[in-house]
């Protein structure tokens, strides 16, 4: 009997990552700001601290070039239909100085390892809120988004034992170098093929 060598895909842990910690295709669009490079020393050290820890047994770390803060995800985008309105939105963004500084307040863990971000004045009320009012024109493709501002460092890819939960929480507790400041690049509307790379749709 001929051996069946049919390719068997690696099972998914969730829609974005498989059980080996590999990011899988997950196409979408979002309004976001990349973290400005070079990254601040505190962020680089935190990344290294976490990668060398028990977290790597359960979380797959994103490449540092992908670090960003999501301002509003988009859904059901069809570029043939939506390109004009998205281009108008990006043009309105580009009229303003949307690069900003923000504060990293703390490290949190659920199914993602994230840094909680605090957006500061005058960006929040004088830049972002007026833009958000304009984005109501995107209502058919604008996702309702109520998450706290954050920067995702890693996604979970394995179930965590009770014993490991305690260890991971202790790792977080032992990192005390908060708060610290990071800078964000200007706001861009980006497309992603997976969770590791976001590319501006308009140059």
TrEMBL record:
Domain DUF1868 intervals: 18-84
Pfam entry (one): 2H-phosphodiest
InterPro entries linked: 2H-PEstase_DUF1868 (IPR015069), Cyclic_Pdiesterase (IPR009097)
Protein name listed in UniProt: DUF1868 domain-containing protein
Organism this protein belongs to: Didymodactylos carnosus
């Amino acid at each position: 009997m001929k051996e069946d060598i049919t390719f068997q895909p690696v099972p998914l842990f969730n829609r974005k990552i498989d059980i080996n910690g590999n990011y899988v295709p997950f196409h979408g669009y979002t309004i976001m700001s990349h973290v400005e490079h070079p990254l601040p020393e505190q962020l680089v050290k935190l990344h290294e601290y976490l990668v060398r820890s028990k977290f790597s047994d359960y979380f797959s770390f994103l490449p540092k070039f992908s670090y960003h803060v999501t301002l509003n995800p988009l859904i059901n985008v069809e570029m043939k239909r939506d390109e004009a309105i998205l281009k108008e939105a990006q043009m309105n963004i580009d009229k303003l100085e949307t690069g900003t500084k923000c504060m990293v307040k703390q490290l949190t863990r659920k199914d993602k390892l994230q840094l909680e971000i605090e957006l500061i004045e005058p960006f929040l009320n004088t830049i972002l809120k007026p833009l958000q009012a304009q984005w109501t024109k995107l209502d058919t493709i604008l996702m309702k988004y109520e998450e706290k501002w954050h920067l995702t460092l890693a996604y979970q890819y394995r179930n965590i034992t009770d014993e490991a939960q305690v260890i991971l929480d202790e790792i977080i507790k032992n990192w005390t170098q908060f708060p610290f400041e990071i800078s964000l690049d200007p706001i861009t509307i980006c497309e992603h093929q997976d969770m590791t790379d976001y590319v501006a749709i308009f140059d």
